[in-house]
Amino acid sequence: MNPSATEAALQGGKPFSIKPLIPVLFALIAGMLLVMLDNTIMNVAIPELENVFHTSLKTIQWAITGYTLATSMIIPLAGWFSDRFTAKRVFLVSILLFTVGSLLCAAAQSPAQLIVFRIMQGLGGGMVAPIGMALSFKIAPPERRGELMGFLAMPMLIAPLLGPVLSGWLLEYVSWHWIFLINLPIGLIAIYLGMKYLPVSDKGASAKLDIWGMILSPLAFSSLVFGVHRGGAEGWTDFYTLLPLTFGLVALSLFIVVELRQKEPLLELRSFRSFEFTKGIILVWINQIALFGSILLIPLYLQQVRGFSSFESGMMIIPQALVSFAGVMAGGRLLDKYGARIPVFSGLVLLSAALVLLSRLDSDTTIYAMIGSFALLGLGQGLTTMQLGTHVLKSAPKDLISRVTPLTTSAQQIVGSFAIAIISGLLSSNIAEHMSQASSASASAHTAAMVAGFHDTFLLPLSLALCGVVLSLFLRKQEHGSGSTEAGSE
How far apart (Å, rounded) are the C-alpha atoms in residues 476 and 482? Predict the structure, then answer.
């Protein structure tokens, strides 16, 4: 990358100032917010789209599954595209493709068209986050990366807050078309900011395409994601669940063997030879499953047990998002000063405490008690999530960053899909089990069975969060580039 204003200031002996980087950060935040906001809006809009297109829930859910499959296929290619065509160009083209796909989704006349255009969105949106993270990591000095990466947590915090509220308002007072049309102004702003402010790196003309990796990675990741999605809906013993899962595992095994033998692999799996990197990745996965499970269960509890609308549910989690942002900023400073252990350990302890409280929610729990639990969860989330991601990148060799971010994002895509499928399936089975044990079919017995089902389901993310607390004690402070690709190194 060409020297940025920050790098120039450092080279001249001047103290670091975040001011020159603010336009760059806004460009990255706008692009990432565009994609993340659309995902949260779509999750709320599925029932309305089912009615609009006069189709079944299974059919319209492919609008989400198709998008997820597309992102799973394209994410592994993000590193190579960035090296070959520059990160700035690929970032801008990805946002443009996503924005055009949004316009086409708004014009869809049938479920099939909507699914196809959502796949187009996924092909664009899949590369935005990994490239945005890699760009932000390159423009910041090592000692201030925690603070800078904290700013990139804004889309992750704003999207879950704004998405359900915005989606509920648009669906109720405007029309379903606007859940996609709202992406147009955001996309155009992101493209303008990116063209004007994102730094330009030298094009890696010598970057070679890993053909076998390009073939095997989309097959492996998309098959696994499809199998997990189908398993959550149709059961894990279904033939068309086991077939893609088996095929995906075989393709993934071949992909790993191929990548470890490549000089310029599509995904840099040799980063796992760094013990610190591996510990960080495992913690990222544990944290993600615990958070994804909680984020899925909270709105379901608010709507199915307490009877809140999607709009009201969105309003209920505003304190969670606000406290989470405060946690991100505090966690970033702690990371820069002390390393990842203190903020991650503290965050996972708070997350565990919040999950204990959430596992005891009842049908008559006060609103203040619920909001307090959500806020505690948000604080734990803020202290943990971005700090873990930054620690993982610091643990990887500096010259592998463009290949490490697609690796971590691809893995998180799979883990996130597993989390949603497993938690939703577990919730359904727990509720069904308590329903069968109910002494009567009254409304109160039905509500009690649902509450008990939620209680039992919250225990899984709680158990994982407690495991994360223990593992976080073994994190070490890493400077960027100190991770090694040599076996057994730290």
Answer: 11
Q: What is the pLDDT of residue 4?
A: 45
| 149, amino acid identity | M
pLDDT of res. 234: 73
For Cα atoms 51, 36, 320, give the angle at the middle one, nearest 5 degrees: 95
Residues 67-117: tens digit of each pLDDT:
878 887 888 888 788 878 888 999 999 999 999 999 999 999 999 999 999
Q: What is the distance between the alpha carbons of residues 128 and 87, in angstroms, rounded to a whole number?
A: 10
CA quadruple 167, 168, 173, 176: dihedral positive or negative? Answer: positive
User: Using one digit for the tens of pLDDT, what is the confidence trace for 165-200?
Assistant: 788 788 878 889 999 999 999 999 999 999 998 887
Among 42, 131, 59, 87, smallest CA distance to 310 is for 42
Q: Give me the pLDDT at residue 389, please.
A: 80
Low-confidence stretches of the chain (pLDDT beneath 70):
1-18, 57, 140-150, 153, 157, 160-161, 201-207, 232-233, 310, 397-403, 405-406, 410, 413, 417, 421, 439-441, 478-490
Report how far residue 119's alpha carbon sits from residue 272's, in angstroms, rounded to the nearest whole number: 31
